[in-house]
Specification:
Length: 287
């Protein structure tokens, strides 16, 4: 097998990364877990990589003003431990366990996964579920993009080629929020379908609901109709069943038209029900 020529730049500062990206035709190398298999594939075109692993200041992991700030070099496995308290910490711990296997989690980064934008990946879905803000740095400075307008198509985002994704800012979820994640996975790489939920219960009723459908379309989408149906309910079995049905029937509108469509919708209904039941276990709890 012949692999293409790769030009490699080991950057030590963000300025060096931006200079390399400004030249065009350059890819950022973070954990390499998605990029390396692509560039070493037989027949892949020659490419240029700028390695960010030695860049100072990209390992931020801190809670500031109600947001957990995650830098570009924070590895998946970091989230296996308690990096932040409360429901956001619970969600990150639950989600990370589903990503690949230990060596992938030791090298791969959350921001690499966001930049790669695989439609079935867990971190993009998490970012959309919690309403994350994504910070991009380019030659003209920084700009912040809400996660729900960052993903535009499979493997496509609003990141410009000359920009580095430097930080994800995840809002700390309020007390009383329960989280749930359920997936249908038949291989080790990525789920066929999944549903993520973060449901806040105040005084016995749903006061905020976020549900995200994973791999139901070109990018993760919020199940807006199902969220609306949950609002004000007590998260009873009936309310959960109704919301799951709405998620499958109305919120899967981006689902590909293919022969397996009725089966896919049924899968989302079952997964939504499961994710909401998990969320109910933590919802309404305080402190
Ligand atoms: C066997 C296997 C199983 C896997 N299973 C799962 C799974 O179950 N769920 C899941 O979600 N993922 C899975 N992955 C993917 C894994 O999570 C990757 O680590 C992740 O998608 C990319 O992170 P990375 O740091 O390795 O990025 P890289 O591979 O280094 O880069 C990926 C892409 O993002 C770009 N990029 C990276 N960082 C930045 C940045 N800061 N700014 C701008 N662009 C950037 C790169 O240029 C490249 O295009 C799997 C991978 C493998 C090999």
């Amino acid at each position: 097998m012949r692999t293409a020529a790769v030009e490699y730049i080991a950057a030590t500062s963000v300025d060096e990364v931006l200079a390399a990206l400004a030249d065009g035709g350059t890819s950022v190398l973070a954990g390499g877990q998605s990029l390396v298999p692509v560039v070493t594939r037989a027949g892949a075109p020659p490419c240029r990589l700028v390695d960010i692993n030695r860049v100072e200041g990209l390992g931020t992991l801190a809670e500031v003003d109600g947001y957990l700030r995650v830098g570009a070099l924070v590895r998946h496995r970091t989230f296996e431990s308690d990096v932040v308290g409360g429901p956001l910490g619970d969600l990150l711990r639950v989600v990370v366990r589903h990503i690949g296997h230990p060596p992938i989690r030791a090298r791969g980064t959350m921001l690499g996964s966001l930049a790669y934008a695989h439609p079935a990946a867990e971190w993009p879905a998490m970012a959309v579920t919690v309403g994350a803000r994504l910070v991009l740095q380019g030659p003209d400075g920084r700009r912040t993009v809400p996660a729900d307008s960052f993903f535009t198509a499979p493997f496509r985002t609003t990141r410009r080629p000359e920009e580095l994704l430097v930080e994800a800012q995840l809002p700390v979820l309020p007390d009383g929020t329960g989280i749930g994640y359920a997936e249908d996975r038949r291989t080790t790489i990525y789920p066929q379908a999944a549903v993520m939920a973060a449901i806040t219960v105040t005084d016995g009723e749903v006061s905020a609901a976020a549900m995200c459908l994973v791999n139901s379309g070109p990018y993760p989408v919020r199940a807006a109709c199902a969220e609306h149906a949950l609002f004000g309910t007590t998260l009873s079995d009936t309310a959960i069943a109704a919301a799951a049905q709405i998620a499958a029937e109305r919120d899967t509108r981006l689902l590909d038209e293919d022969a397996s469509r009725p089966g896919r919708r049924r899968a989302y209904e079952v997964l939504a029900r499961r994710a909401l039941r998990h969320a109910r276990e933590g919802a309404g709890r305080c402190g």
